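To whoever picks this up:

The nightly regression suite flagged DUF2812 domain-containing protein as changed. Nothing in the input moved, so I suspect the structure step. Input below, exactly as stored in the fixture:
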Amino acid sequence: MGKSKGFLWNFLDLDYKAMESYLEDMAAKGWMLRKINGNFATFDRISPKRIHFTVNVLEKAGLWFSENSKGAKEYRSLMEEAGWRYIDAKGHLLFFCSEKEERPLPEHRDLDREKRMLNSSLWKKQLAGTLYILALCSVFMYFFYPVGLEHMQSNTALIFVMVLPLILVAASIHLVYLLVWRYRMKKSVKKGEVFGSLDYRKARKKGGIVNGLQLLLAVILLTAVAMDLTGGNTIAMSLILGLVMSLVILQVLKFLTQEKSDKQSQVFLYLALAVGTIVFVIMAYYPTMDFHDQNRPRLPEDYPRLVEEEWEYMKNLGEKTPHYIRNQSLLLPISYEAYYYFEKKTFSYAYHQAAHERIAAFIYHDILEEFNASRHSHVGSSKRMEELSPDHELYHLWKVDRIAYHENQNTLLLLKGEKVLRFRGIPDFSDPDFIDGVNQIFF
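Regenerated output under the current build:
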């Protein structure tokens, strides 16, 4: 009838039997499946009619295996001889239809073969993916937790550490589902029954929850990345652009392997070409990445900073332009570090303005603990940076909420309200001129 329409394909691969009843119901309503691409399916408008559908599992029809390979073609020929017309493939699933009055038999599918295919193809593929996610999440949680200042300095890292436990819980639930599914499948096959629910409404709801959760997490992470990019994180911009280029190349190569290749050797050739192309692009693009761009002496105009042109104390340190490393997030609207390099000495400071006083207190404590960690200790320096007691003379000079000081490394850590300030290097932290200048600029 000359019309087509896209529908969400909210099905998990293991619910392939429910797909059959769904497609038959859609045909009865006047929609015929033409193509499945990821989580979307294209249907053509037809006159409502009864059409039989079967979704079969092909062991070697995976992501990089061509549906036009010799094995796939042979299987499709057998199905066509039995009265089925091939429609499309999605991973390990091949879709066939028949407009005959009676459902064609045999379907070239028996229970023993189906059990073997489900175990070797769909179930093992799903299990491997779930175990991979669990392992990956466990590794990330080991390195990212406990949460510290470094995770709050970008929206991407902040959101990532927040959703990571959710991904871990979701993967654990899916693992339990897979184990229960396999048990029920083996039990049904043992009884001589075809396994799989035909209730496509429940299957679509289940798939919608899984796909919807994945989409939601992806949107949240992409939003965080976009916020970081618009905030001036050029390193992230370079890395993401390189990733996008690699993904585009992979998609092109995936199309070539699935649509154009008719031999398995050609698939491996395309894969080798994909890897080589990606390596070439990365090697060609890497030198153009300016990883020092954030270290250039520029900050937004509204950022407080030590300016040597306006402060006599900074002029006395020497005519040196600072190197800035700027970060920011929803929890840290302003966060940067500044470094001054002299011939035989250095001076640096870090300023963090948090969205709330409790966040600032957390950052203060994290900096203190991180500084005293063994990997940051210096040879010959056994002392720790300790918080000063309220009766210490520095409290009378600085008039802040909390102070930590390390005499050997000349490091001072200050907390006042929602602001955290850390100095390290050459200043005399009891110099009235230095204290007055810092208070006027930062506090």
